[in-house]
Amino acid sequence: MLSFYVHIPYCIKRCGYCDFNTYTPSELQDGATLEIVSGDYIDAVLKELEFAPTDVVPTIFFGGGTPSLIPPHDLGRVINAIKARNGLTEDCEITLEANPDSVTAEKLEGYFAAGFNRISFGMQSTSTHVLKVLDRTHDPENVKRAVDMARAAGFQSISVDLIYGTPGESLKDWQSTVTQALNLGVDHISAYALIIEDGTKLAAQIKRGDIASPDDDLMADMYLYIDQACGFKGLKWYELSNWAKPGFESRHNMAYWKSANWWGLGPGAHSHIDRKRFWNVKHPTAYKQRLFDGLSPIADSEELSDEMRRSEYIMLSSRLRTGIAKRALTIAQYERMADHIKADLILDTADALVLTATGRLMADRIVADLLA
Asked: Which is an annotated Pfam family here (predicted)?
């Protein structure tokens, strides 16, 4: 089995917190615009596809950037090429990340017809002052409209992404966002703590003192609130930052967390095949040039040692509801967890160690203790 991630590295505007490998029209050195870029970019992606293994494909995920800026026909070319070359499982999950402002009923119908069956909308918050700090461009009122249009277009699996801990966001703001997100009737919610990345506009604003840093204690309360609220609505946590109705977990993301094989298509995209991890050149122009010259876009790679694989298993499985299999731990590692178990940070089941809700707030520290 081989999953595919397809990176669409274009946005209308860069969000203040974003350090992803994305580009706005003003940042593109070759002067390209989003209106004309999709054709030759997709041509390059299809050339990279020829370097990938031909295993059957259980999931495809189009992320970015803003994939929903690219016309359905062009994204459909990638799906069709993967289907023709590798073959898709009967229940292949094909996800599109979308900005609520960038879709119309016609566009969503086009994406569904092109083969997409799952969509994830960047909602982030329903508070306009929070969205302003994040430099998000969408109107919060458009999220419900986008979700309703996606349902009407035929999408059976709909997710929204939220961000908590934005400077100036109160617990009341967050509770309102979570309530409204759950009232959309979506099948899946991702909620990520805001991380201030060096080099971003938001980091510069905090450094200058224009806005305050995120409050860790408040963020902990926000996490516990969404965990409880989702549970009341029948969305169970299955990964540290993700909740879903039964059967609507993101199978593509589970492939990452379980260290399955995947190939990342696009500039800066990372791949993992067996014991090897590798990544592409970052800039779209360099990426396209290499492929149009008949060269691989891979910038560098690394072989994963047995020790690296064991450590990654612990780091990744600790995030999951299934937990860390006891058989994967040494006696010393298990014994180091005794205090965390007594403190109700870890649930000690017959086969695994599973983080409790409070334990998830301290996941990094617990993993560090395990790997010490």
From this structure: Radical_SAM
Look up residue 276 and give its amino acid.
K
The model's pTM: 0.89
Query: CA-to-CA distance for 13 and 302, rounded, in angstroms?
Result: 33
List 298's β-bridge partners, or say none.
280
- pLDDT, one tens digit per residue, over 65-107 is 889 888 999 999 999 999 999 999 999 999 999 989 889 999 9
Q: What is the CATH number of the domain that holds 196?
A: 3.20.20.70
Asked if 108 and 175 sit in the same domain, the reply is: yes
Containing structural domain, residue 37 = 3-257
281 is a domain residue: no
Q: Which residues make Cβ contacts (< 8 Å) with residue 52, sequence separation at least 6?
A: 2, 4, 86, 263, 265
Side chain identity, residue 219: M
Letter string b/e over residues 189-201, b meaning 16 or more CB atoms within 10 A of that residue's CB: bbbebbebeeebe
Distance of alpha carbon 47 from alpha carbon 217, whole angstroms: 48
